[in-house]
Prior knowledge:
46% of the residues lie in helices and 1% in strands. It is mainly alpha-helical. It has one domain. The chain has a two-stranded antiparallel sheet with strand order 1-2. The protein is globular and about 55 Å long. 41% of the residues are buried. It binds fe (ii) ion (FE2) (2 copies). One fe (ii) ion binds next to loops.
Amino acid sequence: MSNNLEHELLDDNKASFRNYTAPQVSETVDTVREFYRLNHLHQTHDFVIAKKVELLAFNRQTMTPWAALDYLNTLVDDSDPDIALPQIDHLIQTAEAMRADGQPDWMVLTGFIHDLGKVLCLFGEPQWAVVGDTFPTGCAYSSKIVYSEFFATNPDSQRPYLQSKYGVYAPNCGLDAVQMSWGHDEYLYHLLRDHLPQEALYMIRYHSFYAWHREGEYDHLCNAQDRAMLPWVQKFNPYDLYSKNPNRPTLAVVKPYYEDLLAKYLPANLQF
Ligand SMILES: [Fe+2]
Ligand SMILES: [Fe+2]
């Protein structure tokens, strides 16, 4: 079956993805629900700022991109109701669906590496500080954020100055100025910001910001650049979401193509 056909078949079945209540996956749902309970409890504005100081120092480890991808093979994402297969398979599927659709090579590469920031788990970070949907901290929580009821337990909910519409931000300050909840998206953006086009960097940095790219929330914090880049983030999303297909393309077959692509855009070693 070609990737295009797989993609069309999967598109017919969109409603079955990101379903957080399906009874047939109740065990998975419990894991996801517990994940978001912890995420929404602990991801305060101060936590995000502290994690940036700590982890954007990039003083942990030097690895080739392939070594980081190898590590991802050992990780199962607790926030994801759709997959229990190794991350590398998800990355190959995302990128191969883009490649089959004739997307530009920088976008195919972005598909291939977009979850590489999950190596944070390798440094001992808990999953609630690595994966899951992201959201702005330091201002009011949108009710469109998944499991938003759990924000009642976040200490920031008791700080009125962090709960107004704009919170600590100026109107239309731009997302770059917004302290998003901490995770693999923001981390990888900073790691790769000198190496990829702006469209790719938006895809990486905001691919888990569903309240924005799917629900249309938080436009009041966006500037003209964010609005111009939003369609690219939206273009990325179906590949991330609907290519979580249990049929796996093999790494051995596609590896030479991605070796060339990695060499074209990224340095041989990355400083994590
Ligand atoms: Fe991701
Ligand atoms: Fe992904």
